[in-house]
Amino acid sequence: MKKVTLIGSFSGRNAGDAAILGNLLDDFAEVRSDIEFLVPTIKPGYVKKQFAHHNVRAMGMMPWHGSLKALGLANYLGMTRTDMVLITDNAFFDRKLYNPLINTLWSVALFAPICLRKNIPIVLYNASVGPIDTEAGTKALQKVLDATKLVTLRDIETKEILERLDLQYPEVHLKADCAINTVPSPEKRLTEIIRKEGLFTNAKGCISFNVNAYIDNWSSTGKLTREGFCKIMAESIDKVIEELGVEVLLIVTQVMDLKITREVQQNVKNQADVRLITNEEYSYHDIVGILDKVDSHVGLRTHSLIFCAAVNTPMVSINSYPKNRGFMRSISQDDWMIEFDDLDKDYVANMMIKSFKEREQRIEYLQPITDAEKKKSKESVGLVSTLLDSI
Question: pTM of the predicted model, to two decimals?
Answer without folding.
Answer: 0.94
